[in-house]
Amino acid sequence: MKKIIIIGAGAMGSAFAIPCTDNKNEVTLVGTHLENELIKVIKSNNNLHPALKLELPPELKIEEFNKLNSLLEEKVDIIVAGVSSVGVEWFVNQISKNYKKNIPIILLTKGLAVVEGELMTLSDKIKKLLREKGHQEVNVSAIKGPCLAVGLANKMRTGTVIANPDIKEAQLLKKVISTSYYSTDISDDLTGVELSGAIKNIYSMLIGASEGLSNSKAPKEIQSKYYLNTSASLIHRSISEMVEFVSHYGGRAETVYGLAGLGDLYVSAIGGRNSLMGQYLGEGHLYKDAKEKFMKNITVEGAQLALEIGPKILQDLNSKHFPLMFSMLNTICANKKLEINW
Question: Quick one: pLDDT band at residue 86, thresholds 50, 70, 90?
Fold first, then answer.
């Protein structure tokens, strides 16, 4: 049994608590400073999570943000980051005062960052920030793959990959969190796993645009029936670009063909927020208009990532090698109509 603290009570952090609890660990789910009301709602309603629409395990401890420091002061075996990508720095600030040497940190968050002009994975950002606060021995693993929170919460059979440069560390975590319905592969390609898990959000928007891109002259009824040829073409090219992208920034090409790349792209492309935004862009809407009109209060991870890394990517890479990536980055960052040079 391990003592696990999950920081972030959103859908994914809360869903991840379920296999951790089922595997006989002592698990505490702690909301961020922005989730006090959410925690109150959950605790007052028999652990019913409003986003997941199910009751969290009764043995799961659920606490508000004001309890976090005291919890971290106690013996902790694993700390889980269930915050959004923009909350990573906040996460580090919260754990830095009580972080002990090499305590495993599990990163659920998908994203990349540009720090001091360099593209950086979120695990590297966490290590950098903690080292700046005096912690030289930092142990970060990432879990990525085709895992929709609601599916995991309902114990649908799910496969993900745990990545850590030390493969023995990934093996230890696999034993701690795996269940009959939540299986985990292991990898030492932490960079490749994080890169794949992040950029697939951009490509899932492109694939989501397939219907509108299939034949602009055809009636919508025809587009909606026969767009799969277009979708397949975009999937093929997306994977090719993902391989080149991951290789360029230091990951392994084969990682893209695994759960963190191809597997996660499949789940994101057939439904979800990124795919939905892509559908609007494929119909000819500008990004800012679509966000305001259709998805005003909905987080679109692919668009957030494009805005975060877009200027750096447009500067670093050759557009001839990444035509789809550049099309989407210009669509989001410059608020231009989505166009593909077939």
Answer: very high
Indicate the pTM of the whole model. 0.95
CA–chain centroid gap for 129, Å, is: 20
Q: What are phi and psi of 54, to 5 degrees?
A: -150, 165
Burial environment of residue 181 by CB neighbours within 10 A (0 to 12, 13 to 18, 19 or more)? middle
Please report, as a single letter, which amino acid is at residue 63.
Answer: E
Backbone angles phi and psi of 69, in degrees to 5: -60, -45
Instruction: Name which of 103, 105, 107 is nearest 75 in CA terms.
Output: 103
Q: CA–CA separation, 176 vs 152, rounded Å?
A: 16
CB 325 within 8 A of CB 245: yes
Residue pair 139/168 in contact (Cβ under 8 Å)? The answer is no
Burial of 281 (0-12, 13-18, 19+ CB in 10 A): buried
Q: How far is CA 99 from CA 131, 162, 223, 330, in A?
A: 11, 21, 54, 40
CA distances from 169 to 78, 88, 122, 145, 158 (A): 12, 22, 18, 18, 21
pLDDT value at residue 230: 96
Who contacts 63 (Cβ-Cβ below 8 Å, separation ≥6)?
28, 29, 30, 31, 39, 71
Mean pLDDT of 94-108: 96
Rounded to whole angstroms, the maximal C-alpha distance in the chain is 64
| Whether 29 contacts 53, CB under 8 Å | no
pLDDT of residue 342: 86
253 pLDDT above the threshold of 90: yes
Number of H helices, E strands in the chain: 17, 12
